[in-house]
Amino acid sequence: MAQALVRTEFDRKRLIDLIGKAKLPLSVRWESGRARSIDQNALQWKWAQEVAVQLGDTDAADVQARWKLVHGVPILREDDDFREVYDARIKPLPYEAKIAMMRLGFPVSRMMKVGQMTRYLDAIQRECAEQGWWITIPEEAA
């Protein structure tokens, strides 16, 4: 399956040309926005490591799993399809089981677009400030 990120008018014209030359039948699917950035993903892990060190009794994976559940899932639940599946299959589980699922790689932040990931990181930053946890603030945000 082919995939393309269209950022410019040139990219759009190139994609239209490619679709025009493709053999039929053809299925096409697109969505607005772009996936979270590598920098955003690296930042959440950096913060999780910094908080884990300050807490002393946990590791970065546990911190990140909790953040995914507490901050990330509510953002993704704004999407009807995600909410339908999550509410039917995951929401009824006990808290500890949800955390275990997050730690084992349940997709939350990797499903986010840049805007969603920005909201997620903002929520984490607010929590850290409220709890008195020190985290590195990127230069462009300072």
Question: What does this 3D model show about the protein?
Answer:
The chain has 142 residues and is mostly helical. It has one domain. Helix content is 60%, strand content 0%. The protein has 6 helices and no strands. Helix 3 packs across helix 6. The longest helix is centred in the N-terminal third of the chain and has 18 residues. The chain is globular, with a radius of gyration of 19 Å. The chain starts with 8 loop residues before the first helix and ends in an 11-residue tail after the last helix. 18% of the residues are buried. The mean pLDDT is 88.
Outline of the structure:
By secondary structure, the chain is mainly alpha-helical. The protein has helices spanning 9-21, 38-55, 60-76, 80-89, 95-103, 114-131.
Enumerate how many helices there are, as a single number. 6
Unreliable residue runs? none
* N- to C-terminal distance: 40 Å
Task: Determine Rg (CA atoms, Å).
Answer: 19 Å
| Element-by-element helix/strand order | HHHHHH
Q: What proportion strand? A: under 5%
Give the tally of β-strands. 0
Structural class determined from secondary elements: mainly alpha
Major sheet description: none
Helix content percent band: 55-70%
Mean pLDDT: 88
**Coarse morphology:** globular
* Total tally of structural domains: 1
List keywords for this structure.
142 residues; mainly alpha; 6 helices; globular
